[in-house]
Specification:
- The structure holds two protein chains of two kinds.
- By secondary structure, chain A is mainly alpha-helical.
- Chain A is 71% helix and 3% strand.
- Chain A has two domains: 173 residues, no CATH class; 71 residues, no CATH class.
- In chain A, strands 1-2 form a two-stranded antiparallel sheet.
- In chain A, helix 1 packs across helix 8.
- The N and C termini of chain A lie far apart (60 Å).
- The relative contact order of chain A is 0.15.
- Chain B has a two-stranded antiparallel sheet.
- Chain B is mostly helical.
- In chain B, a hairpin with a 6-residue loop joins strand 1 and strand 2.
- The relative contact order of chain B is 0.09.
- Chain B is globular and about 70 Å long.
- Chain B has twelve helices and two strands, in the order H-H-E-E-H-H-H-H-H-H-H-H-H-H.
- In chain B, helix 3 runs antiparallel to helix 4, helix 4 packs antiparallel against helix 5 and helix 6 runs antiparallel to helix 7.
- Classes of the chains: A mainly alpha, B mainly alpha.
């Protein structure tokens, strides 16, 4: 049961980070969302055998985490869980792709290992940037940024509603699961026979809660929209932030910085 | 079954984003036009319910492992396609942002695989047809089981196709299918059984909830056709635009086709500004050409050919070492800049306190 509550605590912690008051927190969320999107698209646009040109891109998540004063260890631990699906699928590359592409002294490195390494680096970059975005922006701000950028309002309301009730319902779910755990001695009672009614009860309680929420909202004058009083301003700083990072990403996409740097150093020491 | 950014090419990711965004816009308009604002809190709270329920496990008899409910089909049965699609999409957005399940670009694929397929393909074309207006328990069970199994075959199929079209993975499509489909057949059966258990419980406890969902005007063939045509148009349009922009890059699809058809020759990226590895690839290509020409060379006499080989070999080693070195240096630079930023921040923070 520790796992459900552990996951919940983890979730809350990331949520609370967004309440920080660093300069990057105060940026208009649209700037951060846009920069992150450009980042992800440039990262995934590299060819499958390109590994070294990906490294300059670490600058973006690292700087975001540092500028937002996010706990680096926590973010790294979350990234380390990586998407298992990508890893499992990537593991097949070295098996099926045995063409030797690079020689490091006596060792021949096959294309499969290079593309697998490339997949791992891509995972770290894309996952890291998404976590950093939430950490310095917060979920509701990301939602309202997306709404300003053209996301339908119904969907924005849905996202905010979902977010509001995730904590309530996961706590209820965790309590239910703990109650079952305490009554199930070892394995008995954890099968499907009790799971159906258990989830069914949770569903019915959820449904009734929704009806209560709806009545409460109606009595407060709900008209299908959420009114958020948060000043949005896409000023000079935001423009500089977005354009600066985008220019950096495009530059690193076009010019292989590590290669340049490396050949510079090896030339010097030759 | 979450698709991941790391396996996607921008063309595939962008296309699926456009498709999912279009379907979100369509469903939002539809939900709003229904003017049933009772559904607004219901969708939100049921999305949160999905979250909670995915955290509760049950043991699967005879296997010793445990599973959890996916819930896509359950939501579609309770809410109808448009509202369920929005709810599932919102859950996937939260998972992508907080649990790093897949990533932001892969969100389009995930919304399609886990939202669009159950809500707009399986539900109208299969579930509604089988279940009829006033189903008995047998008919309801049958409809749910068939829908769950088919939905959980189509979803992974679409994951395989998206991976294949992106061409980042070297896994042959037939092997990938053989890995994915049987596993998901088992998952589909379990998902179906659990959904049956929950739905029949609700059916007994509060039949009016299910009755409302059953009597809701089934979405007609007309609507399905509109959605599918819009989907195709969006896919073609964005696929065309994105691949036109991306045509400078090595084409992932060509790679994949070459792999699958068994042509061994590895072609390097045709043009452009590519990295150390692309350069290395060219170098190896030059070398192999050279090796082929080698037998001819002695006619001209001299030691030049051997010399050149070692030279090329040397520079090749040089480039790979310098590439790696450079990569390590940039990484160190990135980490150091983060560290320095933080160091600079901390005293300031304390002074503020």
């Amino acid at each position: 049961m520790a796992s459900i509550e552990g996951a919940l605590l983890d979730f809350k912690r990331l949520d609370r980070l967004a309440a920080g008051e660093m300069a990057i927190h105060r940026l208009d969320p649209r700037a951060k969302v846009l920069a992150t999107l450009v980042f992800i698209i440039t990262v995934v646009s590299f060819g499958k055998y390109e590994l070294t040109p990906l490294f300059p891109f670490f600058l973006f998540p690292v700087v975001t985490v540092a500028a937002g004063d996010l706990p680096a260890g926590y973010i790294v631990r979350k990234i380390a869980l990586l998407c298992p699906f990508a890893l499992v699928v990537g593991m097949f590359n070295p098996i099926f792709d045995r063409e030797v592409l690079v020689h490091l002294g006596p060792f021949g490195v096959t294309g499969g290992w290079i593309s697998f390494a490339s997949i791992v680096v891509r995972s770290i970059l894309t996952v890291g940037s998404a976590l950093a975005l939430v950490g310095v922006t917060g979920f509701s701000a990301v939602c309202s940024a997306l709404e300003r950028m053209g996301m339908p309002q119904t969907f924005a309301v849905q996202l905010l509603f979902l977010y509001r009730y995730i904590f309530v319902l996961t706590e209820e779910g965790a309590r239910t699961a703990r109650a079952r755990e305490l009554r199930a001695f070892g394995k008995r009672g954890k099968g499907m026979g009790s799971y159906g009614p258990l989830v069914g009860h949770l569903l019915l309680r959820t449904w009734e809660r929704a009806e209560r929420v709806h009545r409460a909202m109606l009595s407060r004058g709900f008209d299908g929209r959420f009114h958020v009083r948060r000043p949005f301003r896409f000023g000079v700083v935001e423009t500089l932030f977005t354009l600066g990072w985008s220019a950096f990403f495009v530059f690193c996409r076009l010019v292989n910085v590590p290669d340049l740097l490396g050949s510079l150093v090896t030339e010097v020491f030759r | 079954m979450h698709m991941a950014d790391a396996l996607l090419s921008p063309a595939v990711g962008g296309t699926m984003w456009a498709v999912s965004a279009g379907t979100i816009a369509f469903s939002s308009r539809k939900v709003r036009r229904e003017l049933d604002d009772r559904k607004v809190p219901l969708m939100g709270v049921l999305g949160a319910f999905l979250f909670a329920v995915q955290m509760i496990n049950f043991s699967i008899p005879g296997t010793g492992s445990s599973g959890h409910l996916g819930g896509g089909l359950l939501l579609t049965i309770l809410l109808g396609p448009s509202a369920a699609f929005l709810t599932i999409a919102s859950v996937l957005v939260v998972q992508a942002l907080f649990f790093a399940d897949g990533g932001l670009l892969a969100l389009g694929c995930n919304i399609f695989n886990m939202g669009f397929i159950p809500a707009f393909i399986v539900y109208p074309l299969l579930y509604k047809r089988v279940v009829g207006k006033h189903p008995g328990p047998v008919r309801l069970t049958l409809a749910i089981m068939v829908s769950a199994v088919v939905g959980l075959q189509l979803g992974p199929l679409s994951v395989v196709l998206e991976t294949w079209f992106s061409g980042i993975s070297a896994l042959p499509v037939s092997t990938f299918l053989l890995l994915m489909q049987p596993i998901h057949l088992a998952i589909g059966v379990v998902e179906g059984a659990v959904t049956v258990a929950v739905v029949s419980f609700v059916h007994k406890a509060r039949p009016e909830i299910l009755q409302g969902a059953l009597e809701a005007r089934p979405i007609g063939v007309h609507l399905v056709r509109t959605v599918l045509i819009a989907f195709l148009a969006a896919a073609l349009l964005t696929g065309g635009i994105v691949s036109w922009f991306a045509s400078k890059d090595p084409d992932g699809l060509e790679w994949a086709i070459a792999r699958v058809t068994g042509k061994e020759e590895l072609k390097g990226p045709e043009q452009g500004l590519h990295g150390a590895l692309a350069a290395l690839q060219n170098k190896t290509a030059i070398l192999s050409d050279y090796a082929f020409r080698k037998p001819v060379a002695p006619k001209n006499g001299g030691t030049q050919p051997g010399d050149e080989t070692t030279k090329v070999e040397e520079s090749r080693l040089g480039t790979s070492v310098s590439g790696l070195l450079g990569a390590l240096m940039t990484l160190a630079f990135a980490l150091l800049s983060g560290f320095l930023l933080r160091r600079r921040k901390q005293p300031a923070g304390r002074a503020g306190n």
